[in-house]
Specification:
Elements (H helix, E strand, L loop, with lengths): L1 E6 L4 H10 L7 E5 H18 L4 E8 L3 H13 L4 E5 L4 H12 L6 E5 L7 H8 L3 H14 L4 E3 L2 H10 L5 E4 L18 H6 L4 E4 L1 H4 L4 H11 L1
Parallel strand pairs: 1-2, 1-8, 2-3, 3-4, 4-5, 5-6, 6-7, 7-8
Helix pairs in contact: 1-2, 3-4, 6-7
Bound molecules: cytidine-5'-monophosphate.
Length: 228
């Protein structure tokens, strides 16, 4: 299991200070989301690599559009030299296939994950939009991602094991909504601690607030890494 830290602080400066504090830990995944990328752009991505060149960047932009527009955006993302990004599985199999075909023509491409159901959804909220239960929908989304030859999916811990059973052991599950040692859930609905993440075979856990709101983020990262 690997750790991915969500950089969701209010300014580039605060995010970079956090990264400096944890810079002695090699090979961490660093998740850059909408807020940060819209505000700080590609120069910020370079700064992350300057702090520690082994940091792997996950650009969490959750693309959702028509197939050609998604493939154009995916090619631009690949040119940023990030290590992983994601697209919404609900954009459909054809859109995901178009993205992968475009990326596979490049000499080098980032990993691509499909977003299944956001971990902030309760079953009821999800049903009002998709008219399906989360479990059923996640398996259908996963099937489409797998057949479109994505590298894996973003899902809740509670679906990770089932997803492995329906795909293969190498199909990546990245799971947000992690509260490593049962910290406050905040707005997340389907949260799990490290033990549960491990039991459910999550490959990459995403942790935001429990790290960046901790009184000592460096210590928190060390504790998490020691328990992976
Ligand atoms: O602070 P917290 O640990 O809840 O942060 C989780 C991060 O994972 C946030 O950046 C959120 O946008 C992201 N995320 C999520 N659920 C998804 C996909 C991404 O919470 N399904």
């Amino acid at each position: 299991m690997e750790l991915c830290i969500a950089l969701d602080l209010p300014s580039a400066k605060e995010n970079l200070i956090l990264l400096e504090k944890i810079s002695s830990n090699n090979n961490l995944w660093i998740k850059v989301g909408f807020r940060s990328f819209i505000r700080d752009g590609k120069e910020f991505l370079q700064k992350i690599k300057e702090i520690n060149p082994t940091f792997k960047i996950f650009l969490d932009l959750k693309l959702y559009d028509i197939p050609n527009t998604m493939a154009d955006a995916a090619a631009e993302i690949a040119a940023l030299d990030v290590d992983m990004f994601n697209i919404h599985a609900s954009s459909g199999k054809r859109a995901m296939q178009t993205v992968m075909e475009r990326l596979n023509n490049l000499p080098k491409r980032p990993l691509v994950l499909g977003v299944t159901a956001l971990t902030s959804f309760s079953n009821e909220e999800f049903f009002t939009i998709y008219h399906q239960n989360i479990d059923e929908a996640v398996l259908q989304f996963t099937k489409n991602c797998y057949e479109a030859k994505l590298d894996g999916v973003v899902c809740s811990v509670f679906e990770s094991k089932l997803i492995k059973e329906h795909t293969n052991a190498y199909f990546i599950t990245l799971t947000p909504g992690i509260r490593p040692f049962n910290e406050d859930a905040n707005d997340q609905k389907r949260v799990a601690n490290l033990e549960v993440a491990k039991e459910n075979l999550s490959d990459i856990i995403v942790v935001g607030r429990p790290i960046y709101k901790a009184s000592n983020p460096e210590q928190k990262v060390k504790e998490i890494l020691a328990s992976l």
